[in-house]
Amino acid sequence: MPSPVAPPTRSEWTDSHLRAEILSGRLQPGERIPVERLAEAWGVSPTPIRESVRRLAGEGLVDLAPQRGARVASVDAAVAAEIYAVRLLLEPVALRESVGRGADEAFERSVTESFVALTKARGVAEQHDRHRAFHLALMSRCANRTLLAEIESLMDRSRLFQFVAKPLARGAAHADDHRLLMESAVAGRVDDTIRVHTAHLTNTLRTVESLRVSSQPAE
User: Fold this and answer.
1) Distance between CA 31 and CA 72 in Å, rounded?
2) Which residue in 119, 125, 167, 199 has its CB near the most CB atoms, within 10 A?
3) What's the CA gap between 182 and 199, in Å, rounded?
4) pLDDT tens digits, the chain, 219 residues: what are they?
5) Which residues 6+ apart lie within 8 Å of 128 measured at CB?
6) Which residues are CB-contacts of 171 (< 8 A; sequence separation ≥ 6)?
7) Whole-angstrom Cα distance, residue 94 to residue 102?
8) How far apart are CA 164 and CA 199, in angstroms?
C-alpha cells in the first residue's frame, strides 16, 4: 500500500499557486504581482504570498526592484539565448544517460504515453505542461537529480518568453521532432535522440528571437 502523501505546508501551497499563475501566463512577464488581490482570491493573508514572491525571485521567475515592486520576470531575446545555451549543454548529458541505459518497459511506456498526451493537448497552458512532461520523460532515467532539477528550472524560465511569443510557431516540423524523439529514445538510439533534441531547441530559440521579445515591463 503506498504511503500517504503529506499535505503541502502553507509556504508550499502559496509557492505552487503563485508559480502556476506565472507559468500559466495568467500573470504576464513584466506584470506587477497583485499581492493583495491574490491574497483575497486565495483566502490567505498577504504575508505568505510576499514570502513566496521572494522565493520565486530566487528561481528567476520574479524580478524585485526598488520602486518597481515585484513583477513577473521579463525575458528578452538575449537572455533567452543565454538560457538556451545552458540547456543545450545540460540536456544532452541527461539524455545520453537516460536513453543509453538500454531497453526498459517502464521507460518506453512513460515516453510513449507522454508523447500521446502531448499530441492531444488543447490550449497554450496545457500544451506547455505536456511538452515539458514529455521532455522530462525522455531524461527521466538520468540518475543525477541535481542536473535534472537545474534543467527543470531552465525549462520554467524558458516558458516565460514562450508565453510572450505565443502563439509559438510549431507546425508539422515541430510535431515531427516530438515523434522522432519518442521513436529514437524508445529504440535506444542515443545519438539520434540528441541530434533531434538539439535541433528542436535551436529552432525554438530562433522562433523566439525572430519575434523580438521585449524586455520592457508592462504597466
Assistant:
1) 6
2) 125
3) 15
4) 444 545 578 888 999 899 888 877 789 888 999 999 999 999 999 999 999 999 998 877 899 988 778 999 876 778 888 899 999 999 999 999 999 998 899 999 999 999 999 999 886 667 878 999 999 999 999 999 999 999 998 988 887 766 655 544 455 566 789 999 999 999 999 999 999 999 988 888 887 777 554 444 333
5) 23, 159, 162, 163
6) none
7) 14
8) 22
Cell of 115: 508523447
Cβ atoms 115, 182 nearer than 8 A: yes
φ/ψ of residue 199, rounded to 5? -65, -35
* Range 60-71 burial, b when 16+ CB lie within 10 A, else e: bbbbeeeeeebb
Q: What is the pTM of this model?
A: 0.73
All three cell numbers of 149, joined, read: 532539477
Contact between 133 and 114 under an 8 Å Cβ cutoff? The reply is yes
103-136 pLDDT, tens digit per residue, is 899 999 999 999 999 999 886 667 878 999 999 9
Phi, psi of 63 (to 5 degrees): -100, 130
